[in-house]
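Narrative summary of target 7.
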Amino acid sequence: MSNAQPGYYDDGAGPRRWWDGYQWTDHYEQPAVVTTLPPTVSSVQREANLRNAVAAWAAQGWTVNYVHGDQAVVKRQRRMGWFWNTVLVLVTGGLWLIYVIYRALNRLEDIVVLNVDAYGNVHRR
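Modeled conformation, tokenized:
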């Protein structure tokens, strides 16, 4: 092999080995990695997966706000700590009641967007 250009060649011992133009080196050619993606699922299956995910969120007390195609939006109002708010209203002689009324009228919401990808996996944003 003294006339061969540098490159990977079969030395008869298994994977192709690097010939540097003068001698064999300890470098071997890495086999090609074949990656296979899971098969995509039909739109009917994606919608079924999304409906199942929405049903699971609804079972936990979330309200379904929007479902269309591959996306759904669920939300819930945050709970107020009524016990501690009541204690603070009593301790402050009613001054804390202003804050309690404000919070009751302007309750914060948690919103979750659910998406289903081409492989049927449901993702949360």
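The first strand starts at residue 7 and ends at 9.
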